[in-house]
């Protein structure tokens, strides 16, 4: 399983995390349901991979309670999620734009744009399907999504 950095921008700023590359389609599917912010994005993503969404929300809760972000050199192992961090200054901005293994994708919820800065995992489509995951494993059940017309994918 490959890891990828995801940075999510909304009206509150930006959060970034490293997670399994399959989260790419999962987050795109959640975007198709027009989330208002990163919290709503992660809540919607729970329909596709409840465990991953739980770890993301848990990491945000710890961060908002004053917890420490992941160590700067940390990388996710198989199935791991590195706790999200807020982009608040130049060092966190640089870190939020550093690809890991399979790349970096930015989900700009405010601009309704998904930017594939570097993506060696899979070409993200406007309309696609993915496997629902339970207990960290893919099931036979599929989800389908289609991004609304006002959303763009770059490049």
Architecture blueprint of SSEs:
Layout: E1 3-10, E2 13-20, H1 23-31, H2 38-45, H3 50-64, E3 82-86, H4 90-96, E4 103-108, E5 113-119, E6 127-134, E7 137-146, E8 152-154
Parallel strand pairs: 1-4, 5-8
Antiparallel strand pairs: 1-2, 2-3, 4-5, 6-7
Offer a quick outline of the entry:
With 155 residues, the chain is an alpha/beta fold. The protein is 25% helix and 35% strand.
Extract low-pLDDT stretches. Answer: 71-79
Q: Assign the structural class, choosing from mainly alpha, mainly beta, alpha/beta, alpha+beta, or little secondary structure.
A: alpha/beta
Give the distance, in angstroms, between the N- and C-terminal Cα atoms: 24 Å
Mean pLDDT: 91
Order of helices and strands: EEHHHEHEEEEE
Tally of separate domains: 1
Helix percentage: 25-40%
Shape: globular
Strand order of the largest sheet: 3-2-1-4-5-8
Please report the total strand number as a whole number. Answer: 8
Instruction: Describe the main β-sheet briefly.
Output: 6 strands, mixed
In terms of DSSP E residues, the strand content is 35-45%
């Amino acid at each position: 399983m490959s890891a990828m950095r995801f940075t999510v921008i909304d009206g509150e700023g930006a959060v970034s995390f490293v997670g399994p590359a399959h989260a790419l389609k999962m987050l795109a599917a959640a975007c198709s349901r027009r989330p208002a912010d990163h919290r709503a994005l992660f809540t919607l993503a729970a329909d596709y991979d409840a465990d991953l969404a739980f770890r993301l929300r848990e990491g945000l809760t710890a961060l908002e309670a004053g917890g420490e972000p992941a160590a700067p050199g940390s990388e996710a192992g198989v199935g791991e999620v590195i706790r999200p961090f807020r982009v608040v200054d130049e060092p966190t901005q640089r870190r939020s734009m550093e690809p890991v293994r399979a790349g970096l994708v930015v989900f700009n919820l405010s601009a309704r744009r998904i930017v594939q800065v570097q993506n060696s995992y899979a070409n993200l489509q406007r309309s696609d399907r993915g496997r629902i995951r339970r207990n960290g494993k893919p099931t036979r059940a599929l989800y389908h999504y289609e991004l609304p017309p006002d959303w763009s994918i770059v490049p």
